Automatic annotation (TrEMBL):
Stored NCBIfam families: hi_GC_TIGR00026
Hemerythrin-like domain residues: 150-287
One Gene Ontology MF term: oxidoreductase activity
Protein's UniProt name: Hemerythrin-like domain-containing protein
One Pfam family this sequence matches: F420H2_quin_red
Family in the record: Belongs to the F420H(2)-dependent quinone reductase family.
InterPro entries in the cross-refs: F420H2_quin_Rdtase (IPR004378), Hemerythrin-like (IPR012312), Split_barrel_FMN-bd (IPR012349)
Catalysis performed (reactions): oxidized coenzyme F420-(gamma-L-Glu)(n) + a quinol + H(+) = reduced coenzyme F420-(gamma-L-Glu)(n) + a quinone
Coiled-coil boundaries: none
Annotated source species: Streptomyces coelicolor (strain ATCC BAA-471 / A3(2) / M145)
Length: 305
């Protein structure tokens, strides 16, 4: 949980559209909400940030202490985070920079906020520089989307999943196309790991929600389609097996066995796209008249005031 000081900063930030006093007054401050690596609970942390093009950079300085801050370990375990800047909030993909890119970005940070150089001088660990990137697939950026029905919502989630999977595969193929040491493919970096892990976690949540709520609720209204829902559930289990293989390869900070990862990713693409196509064919006609967001049941006629 946030300390009482951090909580007071969070409360002041949200009450004043990002403006706070005290030691943060006049500085660039954001709120980063991560998911606990062990607890699974939401954790919000006020952090200074530096802009770099369209991205925001945050540094795991921990005031120059010997260990990385807790929020850094959280975003390694759960790369999708929520960012609040001013009055705006958005979902982001958190990607720690590596190698030469980390050095380049840290130099940019120090030029904009020299205090981070002092923190680095006070510790032997390289301070992580985390890039907060657009979480949506590139084709979504700037595109208005209208979601009025549960069918629209299903298509929206499926579009996100397809887009993320395309981006991961494109990044993996680019890595394999670039020669590594002695002509070997380079090891897969944190950019690929973070994006693929985020994709796997959203996919798992989506399928759990369908298995626990959407499928049973829809099947009650369409009992004749019981075999169809049985087949969809079996497809979920098939996708989950491939997802489990990918998740095992993503367990460390570096992607294990890049060649095997590439093969499992190709299997995921084939299985998932076939499943999404089939699911849309079956479910969209059934969900086209179901409003989204759900309409709360009426509590009865209004009373006079």
């Amino acid at each position: 949980m946030p300390t009482s000081f951090h909580q007071s900063v969070i409360d002041e930030f949200r009450a004043n559209e990002g403006k706070v006093g005290g030691p943060f007054e006049g500085g660039d401050l954001l709120l980063l909400t991560t998911t606990g690596a062990r607890s699974g609970a939401s954790r919000t942390t006020p952090l200074g940030y530096v802009r770099h093009g369209e991205s925001l950079l945050v540094v795991g300085s921990n005031l120059g202490g010997p260990r990385h801050p807790g929020w850094y370990y959280n975003l390694l375990a759960h790369p999708l985070v929520r960012v609040e800047v001013g009055a705006a909030g958005f979902e982001a993909l958190a990607v720690p920079a590596e190698g030469e890119r980390r050095e380049e970005l840290f130099a940019h940070v120090v030029r904009e906020a020299p205090g981070y150089g002092d923190y680095q001088a006070g510790t032997s660990r390289p301070l992580p520089v985390v890039v907060l990137e657009q979480a949506e697939p590139e084709e979504w950026v700037g595109r208005p989307r209208e979601v009025r029905t549960l069918a629209d919502k299903l298509v929206e989630v499926h579009t996100w999943l397809r887009g993320q999977l395309r981006q991961v595969r494109a990044e993996v193929e680019a890595h394999f196309a670039a020669p590594g040491a002695a002509g070997a493919p380079p090891s897969l970096g944190l950019q690929i790991r973070q994006r693929c892990l985020a994709f796997c976690q959203v996919l798992e949540f989506h399928h759990d929600s369908e298995d626990g709520h959407l499928f049973p609720g829809t099947a009650r209204h369409h009992p004749r389609l019981a075999p169809v829902f049985d087949r969809l559930a079996e497809e979920h289990r098939t996708v989950a097996r491939v997802q489990g293989e990918l998740a095992a390869l993503l367990a460390g900070v570096s992607v294990a066995e890049p060649g095997r990862f590439r093969r499992e990713l190709a299997a995921m693409s084939a299985e998932l796209n076939a499943h999404l196509d089939h699911e849309e064919e079956v479910l969209l006609p059934l969900l086209a008249d179901v409003p989204w967001p759900p309409v709360a049941p009426s509590a009865g006629p209004p009373t006079a005031r």
